[in-house]
Write a structure and sequence with these properties.
single chain, 267 residues, mainly beta, Porin, two-stranded antiparallel sheet, globular
Length: 267
């Protein structure tokens, strides 16, 4: 769905990556998921693995998650230029979140994230960041607003530092089951990065008997945004709480042909 869904209460497994305030308003008591992503196969060629879980306990919601990304292996050299081995760049993220239902239709949430990146044996970076959100539910509509990636600068072992892509975020997610057979979900997100760049995403999902799903979306990014513009299409199936999902990314020369496979469970 073009990476839209920050306000979604139906996809809470990965809430620790973005917005944990949706968990207390969700209809699911527990949700977990694992996904594998073949990212930018025509470019940087990285493999991403993601895990997330969320559960509700009274007025509270809790979430944990993690991600590991491994880049394409390359040959390393010594000071004289002679080959000395190989290295695969890697990124790691570990995060947790909590949400609290303040009123029957209003909740707040916060996430904490630790991220590290290792580009070579002697070149690595790390940072700590937080997200803060409020979500309001009005019938079939969730509206959310908050700030993302607020935290320390990215620091390298050598002492260099870079700012995180912090942003102010708003989103809306509308879902309705029109009959026992047909359902529709629409989502839109906008991120105004503090660097001056803007990204926006919009997506739609059609469901049949709440078992078969078809999805499409578009993500827009200004020239220097973290993510460029692209389109996505996807399919999913769900039986007895177990879901299998597939998404394909296209419309971009750099990250086009990326694919994501997901497995999840909820009740």
């Amino acid at each position: 769905m073009g990476f839209a869904g920050v306000a979604s209460g139906s996809e809470t497994a990965y809430s620790s990556f973005r917005n944990s305030s949706v968990i207390p308003l969700s209809g699911d008591r527990f949700s977990t998921g694992f996904s594998y992503q073949n990212w930018a196969p025509d470019g940087v060629k990285t493999s991403n693995m993601n895990f997330g879980a969320a559960f509700k306990a009274g007025r509270f919601g809790f979430a944990v998650g993690g991600a590991y990304q491994m880049g394409e292996e390359y040959t390393t050299a010594d000071a004289s230029g002679n080959p000395k081995g190989t290295f695969s760049p890697n990124d790691m993220i570990v995060n947790g979140g909590v949400g609290l239902r303040i009123l029957d239709n209003l909740s707040a949430g916060a996430n904490m994230c630790y991220a590290s990146q290792k580009l070579s044996d002697d070149n690595s970076y790390s940072a700590i960041a937080a997200d803060f959100f409020l979500t309001y539910r009005l019938s079939d509509l969730n509206i959310t607003a908050g700030v993302s990636s607020i935290g320390s600068s990215v620091k390298s072992d050598s002492g260099d530092s870079f700012s995180l892509p912090a942003s102010a975020t708003i989103g809306a997610d509308w879902a309705r089951q029109f009959s026992d057979s047909h359902g529709l979900r629409l989502a839109v997100d906008v991120d105004c990065l503090f660097s001056g760049n803007v990204t926006a995403a919009a997506g739609a999902q059609y469901s049949f008997k709440n078992m078969l799903f078809a999805r499409a979306g578009y993500h827009f990014g200004t020239k220097e945004a973290v993510l460029p513009s692209f389109a996505t299409v996807g399919l999913g199936v769900r039986f007895f709480g177990v879901s299998l999902d597939f998404a394909y990314l296209t419309g971009n020369d750099v990250i086009g042909n990326s694919m994501t496979f997901g497995l999840g469970y909820r009740f």
